[in-house]
Design a protein that fits this description.
Pfam families: Aminotran_3
CATH topology of the largest domain: Aspartate Aminotransferase, domain 2
Organism: Paenibacillus spongiae
Cofactor: pyridoxal 5'-phosphate
Radius of gyration: 21 Å
GO molecular function: transaminase activity
Oligomer: single chain
Distance between the termini: 32 Å
Keywords: Aminotransferase, Pyridoxal phosphate, Transferase
CATH superfamily of the largest domain: Type I PLP-dependent aspartate aminotransferase-like (Major domain)
Bound molecules: pyridoxal-5'-phosphate
Number of strands: 14
């Protein structure tokens, strides 16, 4: 029996389904035991070029020596106190405020879900309102406030689709769902719920469904509608933050939200997340004397996460990280498009910067509903075959791929060669 299978069977004895977060259980089941740079290695000794990047944190690559050295140095001297603040927290917060336009102040927590939860609760406190707008297909974490109408079954689009059993009906029903890239829909929702909407939360690029780009004017339109309605605009930059620019996608788009949530690429794989925003709002948190919005967490601001984030941001400041990953992303997309053209494959290669995905459909999707036209079984077979050939992409429908600073031109060449041979095989 393969070592992968042995470990999986053992894991299922102690853990429901054998995995510690949803959608980690895929077929064939991988057990990775080593990671270095752009490569990951399974328990049977197979090597893969990794584009899954653990859902996005690895912008520099796995086990990055500069980040690791900074973390080791930090934990050799300090850790966590549960009182006061640390020099690492101050430096990390300073760097975020320096780069992210909406960040006048920052608070650290440990996951993107915590960050979006706090942003939504703060918005309710600031506005005295209850309702929230999100978009079909976007994901903002596992809590009741936002976990509805994510990767919905097609027949559930436009309907009430809670993401989990056990959610409070009130939370589900106070979250209204709009169509991405459809400003008329958002405007109508504001009109029908006048004076009731506390916040609008959006992934500025909905990467949880691959890569659906905001159409020109859409994010600006959201900004204007939120301002006109006294609603807080929350950019959930847990994926886009630091990956698409050191200042986040808000800097690329030229649209500044009231609150921003960040995670993943901010610390190259180490656990930390953040909520940032305008000072008058952030000062409502009870970390500030007199603040009335609860904010707490035993591990908030731990030396591991803050040191890793400082190191990651410093490297982005001092080396051409974005220039390189954008160039490699462009090469990848152009290479795949050229292969499709030559082989007569009907597909749309979507992407931005270091992120891309191949939808097997013949037009650019503008929102989640458009993705019904993607050939899901082809999408899955394609990714499984790539995995068999040493190119790791999550074998699940509508998932994106990430390039990191440690990927090389040679990795892209090898990937394109394998993509071509897999597509030839699938076509025949
Ligand atoms: C856009 C977005 N927001 C929030 C989250 C939740 O982050 P976490 O898994 O760290 O709780 C995710 C996770 O994938 C995400 O993609």
């Amino acid at each position: 029996m393969s070592r992968n299978v042995q470990i999986y069977e053992e894991s299922k004895k102690y853990t429901p389904g054998g995995v510690h977060t949803s959608i980690r259980s895929v077929d064939p089941f991988p057990v990775f035991v080593k990671a270095q740079g752009a490569y990951i290695y399974d328990a049977d000794g197979r090597k893969y070029i990794d584009y899954q990047a653990a859902f996005g944190p690895f912008i520099l690559g796995h086990n990055h020596p500069y980040v690791n050295a900074k973390v080791i140095e930090a934990i050799g001297r300090t850790d966590l106190y549960g009182v006061g603040c640390t020099d690492l927290e101050v430096e990390c917060a300073r760097l975020i405020c320096k780069h992210v336009p909406s960040s006048e102040q920052v608070l650290f927590c440990n996951s993107g879900s915590e960050a979006t939860y706090h942003a939504i609760r703060l918005s309710r406190a600031v506005t005295g309102r209850k309702k929230l707008i999100k978009f079909q297909g976007c994901y903002h974490g596992w809590h009741d406030y936002a976990a509805r109408n994510m990767l919905s079954a097609w027949e559930m689009i436009g309907k009430r689709d809670p993401g989990s059993a056990g959610m409070l009906d009130e939370a589900v029903d106070h979250t209204l769902v709009c169509t991405f890239n459809d400003l008329d829909d958002v405007e109508r929702t504001f009109r029908e719920n006048k004076g009731e909407i506390a916040a609008l939360i959006v992934e500025p690029i909905p990467h949880n469904i691959g890569c659906v780009l905001p159409q020109p004017g859409f994010l600006q339109g959201l900004r204007e509608l939120c301002s006109a309605n006294g609603t807080l605009l929350i950019f959930d930059e847990v994926i886009t933050g630091f990956r698409h620019d050191i200042g986040g996608f808000q800097l690329v788009a030229g649209v500044t939200p009231d609150l921003t949530t960040m995670g993943k690429a901010m610390a190259n794989g180490y656990p930390i997340a953040a909520i940032a925003g305008r000072k008058p709002y952030m000062e409502r948190f009870n970390t500030n004397p007199g603040g009335d919005v609860w904010f707490a967490g035993t591990y908030n601001g731990h030396a591991v996460g803050t040191a890793a984030s400082i190191a990651t941001i410093e490297l982005m400041e001092n080396e051409p990280v974005h220039e390189r990953i954008f160039r490699l992303g462009d090469r990848m997309r152009a290479g795949i498009r050229e292969i499709h053209e030559r082989l007569g494959i009907k597909a749309f290669v979507a992407g931005f910067g270091s992120v891309w995905t191949t939808y097997f459909m013949d037009f650019e999707p503008k929102h989640y509903g458009d993705l019904q036209h993607n050939d899901a079984s082809m999408y899955l077979s394609y990714r499984r075959k790539l995995n068999e050939n040493g190119i790791f992409k999550l074998p699940m429908n509508l998932k994106r791929n990430h390039i990191g600073y440690s990927h090389t031109d040679e990795d892209i060449d090898v990937t394109l060669e394998i993509i071509e041979s897999v597509l030839k095989e699938l076509r025949s």
